[in-house]
From TrEMBL:
Name of the protein described by the UniProt record: NadR/Ttd14 AAA domain-containing protein
Limits of the NadR/Ttd14 AAA domain: 19-185
InterPro entries: NadR/Ttd14_AAA_dom, P-loop_NTPase
Alphabetized SUPFAM superfamilies for the sequence: P-loop containing nucleoside triphosphate hydrolases (SSF52540)
Pfam families per the UniProt record, alphabetical: AAA_28 (PF13521)
Length: 194
């Protein structure tokens, strides 16, 4: 058991450190990731938000982009897979914080009716594809919909439950980030980066 733990620790030290900022819609993920980036940390924006912003810039609408939920989620899975493959094969010792992860993409895909196969499950469980820490943001009091965030408060709560359960099913112990002012949330996370 000690040899296994030592081997896992050695592998973790030689792998890139990918940290996830997770939580329900409107829990402050994107604002927190932006603040962490402004403080000098390397970050990656949420893939879905990036894709929607690109579509809006091209004259589309979020509704039109998401009109075929299955096609949208398949595109998102391809983009997210490519992103996380790139991050997990980054140089050893590199650190990045991501706005959500492939786990959320899997949850949303299932909600759209897409069954994920055994290869996706194996990829999610691969020791070389483990997130160093998953910071799960507690929901904020204020909730508002935007061009990107189209879920109601009730749907957001359901998504939060599903995302939390999926991370736990995959063996992650979530670090819950309380609904603090953004500067305190940044400090909370920075103090827990390994």
């Amino acid at each position: 058991h000690e040899d296994t733990a030592a081997a896992a620790a050695a592998a973790a030290a030689s792998d890139p450190a990918v940290y996830v900022i997770a939580g329900a819609p409107c829990s402050g993920k994107s604002s927190l990731v932006d603040a962490l980036k402004a403080s000098g940390l390397r970050t990656e924006p949420e893939t879905a938000e990036r894709m929607i912003q690109q579509g809006l810039a091209s004259g589309s609408t979020a509704e039109r982009l998401r009109s075929d939920a299955v096609e949208w989620q398949l595109s998102l899975m391809r983009e997210d897979y490519a992103l996380f493959e790139r991050l997990f094969t980054s140089p050893a010792g590199s650190t990045v914080l991501t706005d959500t992860s492939f786990v959320e993409t899997a949850v949303f895909s299932r909600r759209a009716g897409i069954a994920l196969g055994p290869r996706v499950e194996a990829w999610l469980r691969s020791p070389r594809r483990r997130y160093r820490t998953v910071f799960f943001l507690a929901p904020l009091e204020e909730y508002y919909e935007t061009d990107v965030r189209v879920e109601s408060r009730e749907v957001a709560a359901s998504i939060s439950t599903d995302v939390q359960a999926e991370y736990e099913r995959l063996g992650y112990e979530l670090v819950v980030v309380p609904p603090l002012p953004i500067e305190e949330r940044c400090q909370f996370i920075r103090s827990r980066l390994l």
